[in-house]
Design goal:
The structure holds 2 protein chains of 2 kinds. By secondary structure, chain A is an all-alpha fold. Helices cover about 70% and strands about 0% of the residues of chain A. Chain B is an all-alpha fold. Chain B contains 1 helix and no strands. The chains are: A mainly alpha, B mainly alpha.
Chain lengths: ~280, ~35
């Protein structure tokens, strides 16, 4: 019966206070700072104890507001994303708790009966919870297989991108601009090919081991080049490295095309796409 | 806002935010306690 009474009172399924939707944005956390301005008078009390306690209260309040604001940002990002895990730390809940504690403490300095400050603190907690909402408690979108695959694919893609960048950063130590540029083009070709894959399918997941193998080989080549015994890199070594990288990337490209990557696009379209991607990436770098 | 509800969630949030500000101001200014 209590439940039916409650559900008639508020939109139960859409309640922000229960963490079921993001809070409205017109409830600003920062504006609450204005309401604490009278605390500044407390700082000017003149006694050391008054100054210290006012400072403590202001600090606690600032920490609470910071937590609330971080939690709010986290919640808005969560509600914008298609797929998102629930926040690991419930910042909003902690922030609400801290603010309720501060208000309870402040009230207890003037009201002698301990029950009343507790009631004030508790009702503040409820008010905070209603106005700022609870953190989202559930992972979102994980039951949708396509969205899940997209997250996995994106993570794989980002990982490959990072490994290529690390490899190129290592290669930069050699100090050969031409070799560096050629290797960058090779890595861009691979990344460009991967970027044509639809992340909602399992294609990237399927070919990830072969990309990883290619990357491992390239990393080994770079390591071998950097660890040459006498510290000097001969022209022959450079040429050998360059040839190896080109062959590896060419064979990868051929294999990728054969296995249906960039399917339905003719060679010209793919090349244009790769070129565009490369240009964009180079500009970004 | 659903039909038959007392108040929409956004409205409830705004009202409770205003109440929170009042309580906060009351506590910090010494009306409900504090200095």
């Amino acid at each position: 019966m209590m439940n039916t009474a409650m559900s008639g009172f508020v939109e139960y399924e859409k309640s922000a206070a229960l963490g079921k939707r993001s809070p409205v944005e017109e409830v600003p956390v920062g504006f609450m700072v204005l309401a604490t301005c009278p605390l500044i008078l407390w700082l000017l009390d003149g006694t050391v104890a008054g100054f210290a306690s006012a400072l403590l209260i202001i600090l606690l309040f600032a920490v609470g507001l910071l937590f609330l604001s971080v939690g709010q940002k986290q919640h808005l990002a969560y509600s914008m994303a298609e797929v998102a895990p629930r926040p690991k730390i419930p910042f909003k809940l902690i922030g609400n708790g801290i603010i309720a504690l501060v208000i309870g403490l402040l009230a207890s300095t003037k009201i002698v009966v301990p029950v009343i400050p507790m009631v004030i603190g508790f009702s503040t907690f409820i008010l905070c919870l209603v106005s700022f909402g609870l953190d989202p408690m559930r992972d979102k979108g994980m039951d949708n297989p396509e969205a899940r695959l997209r997250v996995v694919s994106q993570a794989l893609y980002d990982d490959f991108d990072m490994r290529f960048e690390a490899l190129l950063a290592d290669l930069e130590q050699v100090g050969d601009d031409q070799l560096y540029a050629r290797t960058r083009i090779a890595s861009d070709t691979v990344m460009g090919l991967l970027s044509t894959i639809d992340f909602g399918t399992s294609t990237l997941k399927r070919i990830a081991p072969s990309v990883s193998k290619l990357l491992a080989k390239m990393e080994a080549e770079v390591a071998a080049l950097l660890n040459s015994p006498d510290g000097q890199i001969t022209a022959f070594q450079r040429r050998k490295f360059d040839n190896k990288i080109q062959i590896m990337v060419d064979s990868f490209e051929a294999r990728a095309r054969r296995s249906g990557i960039a399917d339905g696009r003719d060679n010209f379209e793919l090349q244009t796409n790769l070129l565009f991607d490369r240009k964009h990436r180079n500009r970004k770098v | 806002m659903g039909k038959g509800y007392f108040m929409s969630n956004a409205g409830l949030q705004r009202v409770s935010y205003a109440l929170l500000l009042v309580v906060l101001l009351g506590v910090t200014s010494g009306w409900l306690g504090g200095l």
